[in-house]
Amino acid sequence: GAGVSQSPSNKVTEKGKDVELRCDPISGHTALYWYRQSLGQGLEFLIYFQGNSAPDKSGLPSDRFSAERTGGSVSTLTIQRTQQEDSAVYLCASSSYGMPEQYFGPGTRLTVT
Amino acid sequence: GEDVEQSLFLSVREGDSSVINCTYTDSSSTYLYWYKQEPGAGLQLLTYIFSNMDMKQDQRLTVLLNKKDKHLSLRIADTQTGDSAIYFCANYGGATNKLIFGTGTLLAVQP
């Protein structure tokens, strides 16, 4: 079946602009995660959604970062007033409720110039 | 705090076995994972092990877990050039909802 998809695959933006990154989880998966992969910091957790529960936002690095999940499916990660240190690959993952496997999408490579 | 460590690089010859090691600090981990990342690609889940197990085998992959020493290893039998990639160890569980990843081990397979 279809895996996790993310769009765009690449995004180049100017410093100070806002960006939106999209994630489509595997159909039926109730849990959705955002991670960031950068050279300096490795793979870091950003935010976690589980069903209709309040999201775990403990990994968001600043208040410029926010995420929504509409209808328990698609998620959008928004970065406002982008900075060069936001340049990274943003990875989305999903899992089925109660199951340990987290499946990752191909990522969005964000470059802030 | 939570920490997962791996060696950075491993080089093996095609046909040999590869062993990638990982140590972690969170004793409340419920699951431990191995992911593979090829250049320009996302993370591919290879295998995972529940913390009350000490071994799991899946075709060419063998995972060993020493919970007392908080040590996890991934053995790849008959390593092929297509196995060249970065391998990430990760743990999950306790009070968190997230995977904690190691730094990744670059496996280079020489023909």
Biggest beta sheet attributes of chain A = 6 strands, mixed
* Distance, first to last CA of chain B: 40 Å
The pLDDT mean of chain A sits at 94
Ends of chain A: how far apart? Answer: 37 Å
Number of strands of chain B: 11
**Percentage of residues in helical conformation of chain A:** under 10%
Structural overview:
The complex is a heterodimer of chains A (113) and B (111). By secondary structure, chain A is mainly β. Helix content of chain A is 0%, strand content 49%. Chain A has strands at 5-7, 10-13, 19-24, 31-38, 42-50, 65-69, 75-79, 88-95, 103-104, 108-112. In chain A, the strands form 2 sheets. In chain A, strands 2, 4, 5, 8, 9 and 10 form a 6-stranded mixed β-sheet that branches. In chain A, a hairpin with a 7-residue loop joins strand 8 (88-95) and strand 9 (103-104). Chain A is globular and about 40 Å long. Chain A starts with a strand and ends with a strand. The model of chain A has no long low-confidence stretch (mean pLDDT 94). Chain B has 111 residues and is mainly beta. Chain B is built from no helices and 11 strands. Chain B has strands at residues 4-6, 9-13, 18-24, 29-37, 43-50, 55-58, 61-66, 71-76, 85-93, 100-101, 105-110. In chain B, the strands form 2 sheets. In chain B, strands 2, 4, 5, 9, 10 and 11 form a 6-stranded mixed β-sheet that branches. Chain B has a 5-stranded antiparallel β-sheet with strand order 1-3-8-7-6, with no helix packed on it. Chain B is globular. The mean pLDDT of chain B is 93. Chains A and B meet through strand 5 and strand 9 of A and strand 4, strand 5, strand 9 and strand 10 of B.
